[in-house]
Amino acid sequence: MLLSQKVQQNKSVLKVALDHGKASGVIKPHDRVVVCQKVGDASVVKIIELED
Q1: Nearest of 51, 46, 26 to residue 36 by alpha carbon
Q2: What is the spatial distance between Cα 27 and Cα 24, in angstroms, rounded to a whole number?
Q3: pLDDT digits (tens, 9 = 90+) for 1-52
Q4: What is the number of domains present in the chain?
């Protein structure tokens, strides 16, 4: 799998997870979410601040 396809797949999975969190009420607008992802051989930690 090409790296760009893998990155796009990770973004899709992240979007589904965030949408689920919003729908279940766990995540609210303007919350910060800590995301731990495995990208290739690297581990990545992101802090995402949600908008509306």
Answers
A1: 46
A2: 8
A3: 566 777 777 788 889 999 999 999 999 999 999 999 887 788 989 999 998 7
A4: 1
pTM exceeds cut of 0.85: no
Range of the domain at 45: 3-49
Q: Which helix (H) or strand (E) holds 20?
A: helix 3-24
Give the single-character DSSP code of 41: T
**40, 4 Cβ separation under 8 angstroms:** no
Query: Is residue 31 within 8 Å of residue 37, measured between CB atoms?
Result: no
Pairing verdict, β 32-39 and 42-49? antiparallel
